[in-house]
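Lab notebook, bench 4. Still working through the backlog of constructs that have no structural model yet. Next entry is a single chain of 525 residues. Request: give me the structure tokens for it.
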Amino acid sequence: MNMRASTARPAYGIMVEELRGPVTARLGGRIIAQSTRAKVMYETRRPAAIYFPRDDIHTCLTPANGHQTFCPFKGTAGYQDLELGEQSICNAAWSYDDALPEASGIAGHVSFMPEARVEIDLGSNQLEVPEYGNISGPLIDWLLREAAYLPTPEEFTQSLSEKLVEHGVHLSRLSVMAWSLHPMIAGKNFIWSRATGKVTTYAPSYEIHDHPAFQNSPLRHVSNGLGGIRQRLDLDQPSDAFPILSDLREEGATDYVAMPLPFSDGRINVLTVASHHPKGFSTENLGLIFECSAVIARYYEVFMQRENAQSLLETYVGKRTGARVLGGEIRRGDGDDIDAAIMFCDLRGSTRLEEDLGRSAYIELLNSFFETVSTIVHEHGGEVLKFIGDAVLAVFPAGDTPDEARAQALQSARAIVAGLDAMGDEEGKRRCESAIGLAYGRVTYGNVGSRERLDFTVIGQAANIAARLGDYGKSCGHTIVVSRDLLETPEQATPLGSVSLHNVSRPVEAFAVSVAMDADQLAAS
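Model written out:
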């Protein structure tokens, strides 16, 4: 006889039908299961699966071995090994002993993995797999046409949620956890709530991985490749494996699903959805999300790749420079001639420090030095272009306000000296001394280097003079030495006369700047 399923399946679906007469499973010619109560499950775009009542298994299945997989439609599958004489096949059989309502017909039944090479004799039964149609509607149309033009992941998340609701999905909350490549931010968590109609974005630090709330969360479970999660929250005795489930239940949620959103590089991100509908999510609801999840993942991957590129560029070349590179200045020679104050800040006594402290402690001190200098430079409108050994090269572009750029550079230098001195007041840290050179002038701000390896930097006499003035300050005992063109008036500093600097053709009129700041300077810094 023919077993026929409906031929029109416009949406994702599951169908369980009984088979008639004896159905037999053999392995190596030996009968391992035989039943007149076997069933077939049809699931959209999956091979038909034959299930035998557990009582009709005629071979030794080991107790559940702890291995589990998740299906948002059928529930959590437990696995058993099959032992046949001396032969043992790991995870050969699976069953949904606590099947979800959509698959309740296979509860208490066992099926065999294709890898186990079990031969199924259907007897007089013939299977006819449904002809699956194309899932269409507002969500698909939107993904194919409009979604590509949304500029931010927040806008995409909101539109995705709204389209799911428009498609009939009983959605009250949707969140996406997308991991990033950022030195301080572990990833972005976008959460849409139907109650507010808005998306909230969180950017947790890497400390999230050690936080108890994350350690016992669906996000960790799914992103670690342990499979998805579905939990009905309206049961009389719910199984709250994760604290967030009880929180959602208190808010009125009835159903919760967390599923993987894999990126092409292998990282597993997480999509979660919750429903307040009395019946939770239907198979059609979840099937729509499941069918579209690969496309949805690619959209988030594009968004995160752009954010990763921006964050990495900002980390390695600075915020302004990163924006210029992302804006298309990627060819050798691309750049501008600008007026700017240039700072070269060097850690004094670094060779001796490394000898006294040892490599690990010295690197920790060096990082603290870079952190202090970088933070102060950024707070004063400058940008750190690069770290050169134990020194920092920074630029304060003048734009239309050259006097402001000069003043910011001077205030930054004084604040750096004070900040490095204050490091010694922190427990476990050591005071640092610096040598700072400042100069002002016309520089080229752009790409230099080879065809395959570029450096976005400043080139010009002002940059060279700033570095040499810092070296000169070491020899004459001054912490901050500047060129005349950095000062509004010579009275701002102590004149050092015209000094000859290495690789600078003409003597430079140099000045020593007082490290101490008056009340106005302190307020400005």
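Notes after review: Residues 500 and 506 are 7 Å apart (CA to CA). Confidence is low (pLDDT under 50) at residues 518-525. Flag for follow-up if needed.
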